[in-house]
Design brief:
Helices cover 21% and strands 18% of the residues. It is an alpha+beta fold.
Length: 702
């Protein structure tokens, strides 16, 4: 264990570094913003994609918010049920004197959030607006948002003094799902006084959700879904005043075009207070022009081209991490006994260390987008619905984890925690100054690229930048020094300059939220005894690639393609450096500090990070280079009566404490479900761009 940096020494060193760099780096490099003018901030944790009984979840809004921000300590939270309609009233709390059983409290008992809108509203069926003939009548999501759900988020936000607001998991026309928000009009804490509204959020759902087939124009709202200045050739329905229909054999790509129109609408109505982030985008397979599923790389480019300050990233680290098929990714997904070959393959056939192949594969889709110099960032979500066969207050899960329990987004908010606002969080998401991870593998990160100062000896400069990173990580902040750039920013340097990449992370001391303290079965197989609830960071990969500029939509060979094609690849991307206990500095408070030099840069490029608790060549988990292996470990759909004999085994869970719900074959328990998730942890950072003045300009970062 290396000597711990004393904070006072670190502060002095940082001050010295600022002074020295200000003398000699002015002509060498510039960063996005000058350190003395860039507002200070801190990293805050949150989640923007989860569900209640207002869609296909099993608990009330109040219970989900309570679990997320109280039990698991998130700093901010977005409630985002599916678009379309729902018959259940998620704004009713669970009866505190009745246990919430596996499927929630049944409506027939007249208890809890599984009761219908029709049976609980004072006006009954007549209070449910718009089209619909079913009994009980389903309420369109726009009405739920506008008249009922928004009030709950505002009340909960002010009561808990945390930013909590309403969003949507859009059923995107032509595709699968998108996490999105229109904050405009909403007034979460710390705003006070007059109550806000979610009218624009409700209107977006009516206008652009594939599952909202209401034609009432939002009843008395009389919404019109036209977009100012649009060049769309798709006509709005005279009755509904929105584009009706989606991808089909007779309307190829109609849904995708409608989704792009929705992004343009957001740019018109809420250019700085909205976001559009495709969710678990590998899960539904490749895109089809005649169906509604999947996203290919050209669709992500189309979204980002339409509004780069709104469509600026993806959830490639999905929720459902405790499910039998991690993330619910699988080959032949959706098959049934009646149609055993009727499913479709998730892109990549599974997740890789809990992350989809678009981000997990080095040189793949994400690296292709970063190689253009795009503003395209990485996010995670919990996508909470239920805990499978367990009740919502049990610690075990064979389906989902609560927001903050397992995965978190760490986002730079520049207005500080004492006055944290939803606007600051959305600004932070948009900036790319964020990272995401699972299982509290790390909880602090400072990551910068700095132009080396030729006036300072290399060892001294290296030590100073490392101490600046360590100091920032201790404060849960960022390095703010002229001549350095952090995540989501670009460092502009002269040709031939040396760049020092410095990293400080904190591997938190103590336990995470795992209910299991027996040894990690994935590590036990290679002779490492490490409790599941006390993971240890094994190594960090620095991944980099060249920036070659935006691809034109007219260049079809380079612009459009499925995963694995030239359009969705960046062959320059690779692991540039690996850090572990042999070459980082470790301190007693969990900090891991490291740096490396990129000498004489000649071309524009980027660097990003990933890290894990698993060494390279861990059987069934990582390859020889430390890349995550496919998590899918079940056969394609088989007859359940024969399933146990046909399911292959991977990592054996041999400890006596391995829980009974583990997958068991011929009496042998295998690491699966929540145990497999807690065993295999990763974090991903967003990139730092380095622009060389005579090379390609990085247009997607400041």
């Amino acid at each position: 264990m290396s000597k711990k940096f004393a904070l006072r020494h670190t502060t002095v060193a940082v001050a010295s570094l600022v002074g020295l760099m200000s003398v000699a780096t002015v002509q060498i490099a510039t960063a996005a913003e000058k350190a003395n003018t860039k507002p200070a901030g801190t990293y805050v944790t949150g989640d923007f994609h989860n569900h209640t009984t207002c869609s296909d979840g099993q608990i009330s809004m109040q219970k989900l918010i309570d679990k997320s921000v109280k039990t698991f300590g998130l700093d901010w939270f977005v409630q985002a049920d599916h678009g379309g309609s729902s018959a259940r009233n998620c704004t009713l709390r669970e009866d505190p004197f009745e246990p919430v059983v596996n499927g929630g409290q049944p409506a027939s008992s007249l208890k809890g959030p599984n009761q219908s809108w029709e049976s609980t509203l004072p006006g009954g069926r007549a209070a449910i607006k718009g089209d619909g003939t079913a009994t009980p009548k389903a309420m369109w999501r726009w009405q739920e948002i506008q008249e009922f759900q928004y009030k709950v988020t505002e009340d909960e936000s002010r009561a808990r003094q945390k930013p909590i607001w309403i969003g949507l998991e859009q059923n995107a026309p032509g595709h699968e799902h998108v996490s999105m928000v229109v904050l405009q009009g909403q007034r979460p804490w710390p705003q006070s006084g007059v109550s806000g509204n979610a009218n624009l959020q409700a209107q977006y759902e009516y206008c652009f959700d594939r599952s909202d087939t209401d034609t009432s124009r939002g009843a008395e709202n009389q919404w019109d879904c036209s977009v100012a200045g649009t060049t769309s050739t798709d006509a709005l329905s005279a009755t509904a005043r929105k584009i009706t229909g989606s991808n089909s054999a007779s309307t190829l790509d109609l849904g995708h075009r409608k989704t792009v129109e929705g992004i343009k609408w957001l740019k018109e109505k809420a250019p700085t207070t909205s976001y559009f982030v495709p969710a678990h985008l590998e899960r539904a397979g490749v895109y089809l022009a005649n169906n509604n599923r999947g996203f290919n790389i050209e669709h992500l480019r189309n979204f980002n081209n339409a509004a780069p300050d709104i469509a600026f990233g993806f959830e490639s680290m999905p929720g459902h991490q405790a499910s039998e098929n991690r993330g619910e990714y699988a080959p032949n997904r959706g098959a049934s006994l009646a149609n055993p070959t009727g499913g479709f393959d998730s892109v990549g056939l599974g997740t890789y260390g809990g992350t989809g192949i678009y981000a997990a594969k080095i040189g793949g889709v994400w690296d292709a987008l970063l190689g253009e110099g795009r503003k395209w960032w990485f996010f995670a979500s919990s996508d909470y619905h239920n805990r499978g066969s367990f009740g919502p207050d049990q610690r075990e899960s064979d389906q989902d984890f609560y927001p903050g329990e397992y995965q978190k987004d760490y986002v730079m908010a520049r207005k500080g925690t004492n006055n944290l606002t939803a606007e600051a969080i959305i600004d932070g998401l948009r900036s790319g100054n964020s990272f995401a991870g699972s299982g509290d593998l790390i909880d602090r990160l400072a990551f910068v690229a700095c132009a080396a100062n030729p006036a300072i000896p290399r060892p001294a400069f290296k030590a100073l930048v490392e101490k600046a990173a360590a100091n920032a990580a201790l404060k849960n902040a960022e390095v703010r020094i002229n001549g350095c750039a952090t995540m989501g920013e670009k460092l502009v340097v002269a040709p031939g300059a040396d760049v020092v990449v410095a990293i400080a992370v904190r591997d938190p001391i103590g336990k995470n939220f795992s209910p299991y303290s027996f040894p990690n079965p994935s590590l036990k197989q290679i002779g490492i005894t490490q409790p599941l609830d006390q993971p240890v960071l094994d190594h960090i990969d620095v991944i980099g690639g060249n920036v070659t500029g935006f691809v034109s939509p007219t260049d079809t060979a380079k612009y459009a393609g499925i995963e694995g094609t030239a359009a969705a690849s960046n062959p320059s991307a690779g692991i540039k450096k690996v850090f572990n206990s042999t070459n980082w500095t470790a301190t007693a408070d969990g900090l891991r500090v490291m740096s490396y030099r990129i000498p004489a840069v000649k071309v524009s490029q980027y660097v990003r990070l990933r890290g894990t608790n698993l060494p390279a060549s861990t059987p069934f988990e990582t390859d020889a280079n430390g890349n995550p292996l496919n998590d899918y470990d079940l056969s394609p759909f088989v007859d359940p009566a024969k399933a146990e004999a046909q399911k292959p085994g991977k990592v054996i869970c041999s400890d006596a404490a391995c829980p009974a719900h583990m997958r068991t074959v011929n009496g042998v328990k295998y690491s699966s479900l929540d145990v497999a998730a807690w065993a295999d942890l990763w974090f991903y950072s967003n990139p730092v761009y380095i622009e060389v003045t005579n090379s390609v300009k990085v247009v997607g970062a400041k």
